[in-house]
Amino acid sequence: MKITVLTLFPEMYEDFLHTSIIGRSIDRGIAEVEFVQIRDFAHDAYRHVDDHPFGGGHGQVMKCQPVLDALHSVKKENSYTMLMSPAGHPYTQKKAHELSDKDHLILLCGHYEGLDARINEEVDELVSIGDYVLTGGELASMVIMDSVIRLLKGSITEGSTEEESYENGLLEYPQYTQPADYEGKKVPEILLSGNHAKIKEWRTEQSILLTKKERPDLFKAHEFTKEEKKILQRLQKEGKI
Ligand code: SAM
Questions:
Q1: Parallel, antiparallel or unpaired: strands 104-108 and 79-90
Q2: Is 117 in the pocket of ligand 1 (CB under 6 A)?
Q3: Does 121 share its domain with 200?
Q4: Does residue 128 line the site of ligand 1, with CB under 6 A?
Q5: pLDDT mean across residues, the chain
Q6: Domain boundary among 101, 131, 149
């Protein structure tokens, strides 16, 4: 997969692209990342990319010309273009899976007060990473790159993403490692039992309980499997839910 990032601040990505799983995936050629400096497409001597908003108001707005010239310089038929925006669709794990099937992703990062709204017409989608406002789209694009690259074949051990939070609509069960007793805080007995069927049931039960507690919205929307329904009914009988 190729990812092209359109930004005014490519230097922000230095550590991100050379660290841990993302760094290894890029070294192995699983993902290729390139940057386009939007400022390189400005025409005036001071390389302005922004101007005052029509109608008045605070701050500066990124202009159509340099942004769209930068976009058109890299956009191909197989490109999927996303504009980072607090007004976009909320980003989800489902979307990360969809994006991991694309050949070429273009991530466009705004800054200042955002971009001229006519730019929206030239992208496939506006995407938001959460209900808050960042200084620029760079962190949002890193979030998208990270979540997509780790899903690409060869990035991490096959199967290790399958039981994670959001993959089946529930949050992941709690995980523990050595020691079994840390200053009196003990790992649940069942995990030391070696009984894989019981451990699997316990993990599903914990996923259900955790999702109900932390994300009632996900819990309500979840389509429970036959096995999950059985556990849910037992938890209801026991008054745990
Ligand atoms: N004036 C804009 C508004 O109120 O919606 C906010 C502009 S923000 C300061 C500058 C840039 O940061 C945006 O153009 C966008 O690229 C990025 N950005 C900010 N918050 C974001 C979010 N939650 N998700 C994705 N991108 C975001």
A1: parallel
A2: no
A3: no
A4: yes
A5: 96
A6: 149
Question: What's the gap in Å between 205 CA and the centre of ligand 1?
Answer: 38
| Residue whose tokens read 């990812």 | 3
pLDDT digits (tens, 9 = 90+) for 75-107: 999 999 999 999 999 999 999 999 999 999 999
Residue 114: which domain range?
2-149
| Number of domain units in the chain | 2
In this structure, what CATH number is given to the domain that contains residue 194? Answer: 1.10.1270.20
- Substitution site in 95, 134, 139, 147 for ligand 1 pocket (most atoms within 8 Å of beta carbon): 134
Confidence of residue 119 (pLDDT cuts 50, 70, 90): very high
In a domain? residue 138: yes
- 61 close to 39: Cβ distance less than 8 angstroms: no
- Give 3-state DSSP helix, strand, coil % of the chain, rounded to 5: 40, 15, 40
